[in-house]
TrEMBL record:
InterPro entries assigned to the protein according to its UniProt record, in alphabetical order: L6_membrane
Taxonomic classification: Eukaryota, Metazoa, Chordata, Craniata, Vertebrata
Keyword Nuclease: no
Organism: Rousettus aegyptiacus (Egyptian fruit bat)
Main location, first listed in the record: membrane
Family: Belongs to the L6 tetraspanin family.
GO cellular component: membrane
Record-given protein name: Transmembrane 4 L six family member 18
Keyword entries, A-Z: Membrane, Transmembrane, Transmembrane helix
Transmembrane segments annotated in the record for this chain: 48-70, 91-109, 159-182
Subcellular location: Membrane
Recorded topology in the membrane: Multi-pass membrane protein
Length: 201
């Protein structure tokens, strides 16, 4: 019972993290609250991968909802044997947790690449990725940020929001990994066998 309650809490936390991911990703489309840059496609290309909206957002909401349903007491009824039902629910839960790792892992990678690449902004040479060749060194050297003339404060905007997305998706990966470990321990060390014995069903 305690293990199931723990898994339910982790699934609920995934929902909260997913909602925050959607919110943060949407903010990336509106530097300083302005919509003109999105409408004219003057944003970093990594915001169009929808990592926070789709993958660590909507897809993780679906994964978390399915996990909560699978953890419900009413779902241990798929077979004539309770042992069989628990086994299949645990296996399904582990599969969806693995999907959660894939979705949040994608968001983690894309957000990291977006952070390292830097914003698409107007410089003295026109609109370009001013820090693309710096291998992320601009992140620790704020004196370089003045190269971006427009949107105002876009470097800080991107750094903060991409960093938050990295943190959120990283937490999702950790939570899903914890769930996989818990489910493996239930299968390998639990009170019911992963192997269906002859005559059980």
């Amino acid at each position: 019972m305690g293990s199931r309650k723990c898994r339910s809490c982790l699934s609920s936390l995934l929902i909260l993290l997913a909602l925050w991911s959607v919110t943060v990703n949407i903010l990336l489309y509106f530097p300083n609250g302005q919509i003109s840059y999105a409408s004219s496609n003057k944003l970093t290309n990594y915001v169009w991968y929808f990592e926070g909206i789709c993958f660590s957002g909507v897809m993780m909401l679906i994964v978390a909802a399915v996990l909560l349903v699978l953890e419900s007491d009413n779902n241990y009824k798929c077979c004539r044997s309770e042992n069989c039902s628990k086994k299949y629910m645990t296996l399904l839960s582990m599969i969806f947790s693995a999907l959660g790792i894939a979705f949040s892992g994608y968001s983690l990678v894309m957000s990291t690449l977006g952070l390292v690449q830097g914003p698409y902004c107007q410089t003295l040479n026109g609109w370009e990725y001013a820090f693309e060749g710096t291998a992320g060194r601009f992140l620790t050297d704020s004196s370089l940020w003045v190269q971006c003339l427009e949107p105002a404060h876009v470097v800080e905007w991107n750094i903060i929001l991409f960093s938050i997305l990295i943190t959120l998706s990283g937490l999702q990966v950790i939570i899903c990994l914890i769930r996989v470990v818990i489910q493996l321990s239930i299968i390998l060390c639990g009170t019911y066998s992963i192997i269906i014995q002859p005559g059980i069903i």
